[in-house]
Amino acid sequence: MTVQKKHAPSRRKFLHLAAGAAGAGIVARAMPVRAQAMKVRVGYIGDFHGTSITAVANKLDLWKKYKLDADIKGFTNGPIQIQALGAGDLDFGYIGPGALWLPMTGKAKIIAMNVVGFSDRVIGQPNIKKMEDLRGKTVAVPEGTSGDMLLRLALAKAGMKLDDVKRLTMDPSTVVTAFASGQVDGAGIWYPHVATLKSRIPNLNELFSNEDALPANSFPSCFVMRNELADPKNAALVDAFVRVVKEANDYRKGHVEQAVEWTAAMLGAPKANLEAESKLAKYYSSAELAQLSDNGTVQSWLKGMNDMFKTFNRVPESVDPNSYYLGKRYASVK
């Protein structure tokens, strides 16, 4: 039997193979590496103003567009989200005007404004016709929220003090249950909860609203982030989140009805209630919010809130809004 010898490749063939391998290596190194999505934890509150930006971002797939892997978490109010930010359990969240005293006292940074809202109400049972009728009566409010804030404003305007009513603190859903069952005489709460209560008690009375506090007080809601994210090493994550908020905000401004539908689907909530809430706000484009930040208008809103919280003993002093509102950062992100 003849055994055939295995010949080593010729020098020319060896060099050809080596060159091909080297070329393949060059091509592999030159191929772009797909950026890995950055993980981000985002909070929302289950009403139109507190959820709609997130709902739009979900439907338009903006998280993926800006390379974010979002873990969306629902909360009942702003103060709880601020606690989660402080504990490192959340990166960004949404708060209404009643919780603005928390970033004012250094608990978080405001990274973007949302809307100026008019959805808060102090309401009374059918036999409560005016604020003065609440003297000595029970009033339910979620602690540290816009409902709590509006109750204090309404009492002051009526020449009353907080001690003139029996203030009971509850989470929003418990406020609705307590008022609907007649366990409390009044409540400081907001739409869509007010719409839910009207469906059960059509002749309840709206005693005071945000608009009754104008022009001395404007009521902006906003997006906040944990303080650690202000470190330059987190710039990519913060900028990506701002891009999501800006694009979702501009879409919502031009398509409020669609945003209502998507928000209702996300929350499993009655569309009619969210639609009613959606009409109780002033919407701004992202470019307008940047301009209003640049000319000091947003800062004036925040200063007015700061002064009011000082009278409520929520904050010890008035501080420069630019110390906690990153308006220039918001405007610079394209």
List the helices and strands and how they pair.
Blueprint: H1 11-30, E1 38-45, H2 48-59, H3 62-65, E2 68-75, H4 78-86, E3 92-95, H5 101-104, E4 109-117, E5 120-124, E6 138-141, H6 146-157, E7 166-169, H7 172-180, E8 186-190, H8 193-200, E9 205-209, E10 220-225, H9 235-254, H10 256-267, H11 271-278, E11 281-282, H12 286-294, H13 297-311, H14 327-332
Parallel strand pairs: 1-2, 6-7, 6-8
Antiparallel strand pairs: 3-10, 4-10, 4-11, 5-8, 5-9
Helix pairs in contact: 2-9, 2-10, 7-8, 9-10, 10-11
Question: Can you walk through the features of this model?
Answer:
The structure is a single chain. The N terminus is likely disordered. The longest helix has 20 residues. By secondary structure, this protein is an alpha/beta fold. The chain is built from 14 helices and eleven strands. It has two domains: 194 residues, 3-Layer(aba) Sandwich (D-Maltodextrin-Binding Protein, domain 2), CATH 3.40.190.10; 94 residues, Periplasmic binding protein-like II (D-Maltodextrin-Binding Protein, domain 2).
The SSE string, one letter per element, is HEHHEHEHEEEHEHEHEEHHHEHHH
Q: Using the CA coordinates, give the radius of gyration.
A: 27 Å
Could you tell me the mean pLDDT?
Answer: 90
Termini, distance in Å? 77 Å
